[in-house]
Each structure stands twice: as C-alpha cells, then as structure tokens.
Amino acid sequence: MEIGLGIHGEPGARTVNQLQSRATVAELLTTVQKGLDITRTNLVVMVNNLGSTTSMELQVIVHDVRQYCVAQQLVVERVAVGSFMTALDMSGFSLTLWKLSEEQATAQLGWLDTPVTAAAWPARLGRFTDDNVVDVHDVAPAKPSGASTLTITGELLKRAIYAATQSIIQAEADLTDWDTKAASAGADATKRIAAHDAFGRTSYVGEEAVKNIPDPGAMAVAIWIQALVPHLQTE
C-alpha cells in the first residue's frame, strides 16, 4: 500500500507492506506529528474516507486515532468523521490534524462549531473524552422487544417465516450435500464455458464475465425479500 498517495493518484511518499489499522494510523499520525511539531497540545482531527472505506472500517480507524492520541497525551477538542474529500471509489483514508493556537483556541473552536448548511458536514463535532465512550452492554437491552402489535396477516407471516427457518435448519445436512454437488457442477460448467470462449465461441460468456456473475442463490433470496418488504410495510 502507498503512504501519502495523492487524491488524483499521484505517487505516495513511500510504498510499504499492508498494515493493520492501528499500525497504519500510527504511521500517518507520527509523520504529521513530527512535521507540525505537535507535543502535548490541543488539536482537531479529521478522519476522511477517500471513497470506498465503509462506515464500520472508518469507526475502527477513529478508535485507533483516539488510542494513539491518548498515548501521546494529545487532547482532541473536535473530531470530524466522514467523506469530505473523496476520489470516486479510492480505497483508504486520510488523517488531518489542526494544531490549535494557545491564544486563539476558544475562538477557533467557535468558528468550527458555527452551524452550516453543507450536507456532508456533521451537524455536531464530537470530542474525545472518557465519558463519551459508550459500553454497548450498558445501553442495549438484553432482549429486544417489538414496539408494535402485529396484525393477523403479520402474525401468520411471522409463523410462516419461523416454520420455514426451522425446516431449513433441520435440512442442513441435505442442503450442504446439494450445495456441494451444485458447486461441483457449476465449476465444471464454468470451465466448459471458458474453454468454448478460448476457442472463439461468441455464443458463450467469456471467462472474465463468468468470474463476476453473482451467486444465483443469493440473488433469489434478495429478490424474494425485495418483493416481501412492501407488503410488510402496508400491513
């Protein structure tokens, strides 16, 4: 992976073996910290999604940024997380540090907290403090409970879904056997199509296209759920 890759694809500062999130965050923040001569100071951090990083991955990065800052005795007054500067579907993330002025820190934070109408900018920027780290076990109920009563049709559908899932669980051995046979047959068919494609048969799908064909079983389930959801909403 490249460290310091440009937003337009310009070569990075260096190329290294792919690292885990914590090591990557430490590499980036150490570089910026040395460049700005940041030690035991107050700052603002921006964690930016370059395009294709998922929200869950981005939050892992935020966690690692927090751990690094705590270890370096850096006080993060505000943290902005989101897709602020992207390059289509570029993989990865960027970190920006703003070293606050000792004399103007209050004013600078006031400017940063000014409400804006930009859709991509967070309505409220958070702050890294020990009291805003939530333990999910303290806030999540042990057993979720429904907030509404099902209609007669909804109750029937619930029982039907439960019965169907139980049947699937009981048929696990048969399903596994069928899936194995289907996978074997599918692999043979793929090889046959690829062979015909190699010999110039235009009536068959090319090998590269075959690799990208979605799993038909998953497609069938997705179509079924898509058709079911509107009826559940109306009920």
Automatic annotation (TrEMBL):
Report a single Gene Ontology molecular function. glycerone kinase activity
Domain DhaK: start-end pairs: 1-121
Query: So which domain of life are we looking at?
Result: Eukaryota
Q: Which InterPro entries match?
A: DhaK_dom (IPR004006), DhaL_dom (IPR004007), DhaL_dom_sf (IPR036117), Dihydroxyacetone_Kinase (IPR050861)
Q: Name one GO biological process term.
A: glycerol catabolic process
**Where is it found, in Gene Ontology cellular component terms?**
cytosol
Query: What UniProt keywords are attached to this protein's entry?
Result: ATP-binding, Kinase, Nucleotide-binding, Transferase
Q: What is this protein called?
A: DhaK domain-containing protein
